[in-house]
Amino acid sequence: MRIFRTSRILVTVVTALITIVAIAAVRAHDDSSSVAVPEYTVTMETQAELDSLFAIINADYLPLKPMFEKSCFDCHSDQTEFPWYYELPGIKGIIKDHVKHGRAYLDLSNDFPFAGEDDILEILEEIREEVEEGEMPLFSYRLMHWGRLIEGAQQDSLFNWIDQSTARMKELYQRHGIPTESEEEEADEY
After folding, report:
1. Helix extents (H) in 106-150
2. Beta carbons within 10 angstroms of residue 102's beta carbon
3. At what angle do helices 120-132 and 152-176 cross, to 10 degrees?
4. Each residue of 145-156: pLDDT tens digit?
5. What's the pTM?
C-alpha cells in the first residue's frame, strides 16, 4: 500500500513538471511577431530596421568614441580609471557613489545604443544639452582632470553626430508610428 501511494505521488509530481515544461515550451515558441521596446511594442520587421539603424549610428559613433573615453567613461562606463586620490579616506565613497549614479543615468560601456534611464532619443538630446551648457563633464571632475571639456571641433563633431542620429531615429519612429518619449509625455498631459 505504501509503495502504491509513493508511486502515485511520484507520477503526480512528474506529470506536473512535464506540464510546466510543456507550457514553457509553447510560450517560448509563440508566433507573436513582436518584441517589446520601452513603452511600445514593435513588429520583428520594425525591430530589424531599428537594429540596422542602430548599427549604422554605432559605426558613425566609433570615430567619436575616443572623445567619449577621455571625457565621459570615468563616470559613465565600466571602464572607470580611478584617480590617485581615490584611496584617500572619505573620497573613495564619494567617487564610487558618483560613478554608480552616473552609470545608472547613462552607461556608455557597450557602444550605441547607450543604456540609461531614458530612451535613446532623450539620452542623445540630454548629452547635447549638457555638453552645450558646459555641465558635462562636471566642473568638479574637470578641476582634477584638465582637458576633458568637449569644445571646439570636437563639440561640433559630437553635435553633428547627435543631430544626424536623432533625425534618422525620429524618421524611422514616425514611419512606423512609434511614439517618442516627449510625445508620450504630451499625451499624458491631456
Report:
1. 120-132, 139-144
2. 22
3. 160
4. 777 778 899 999
5. 0.70
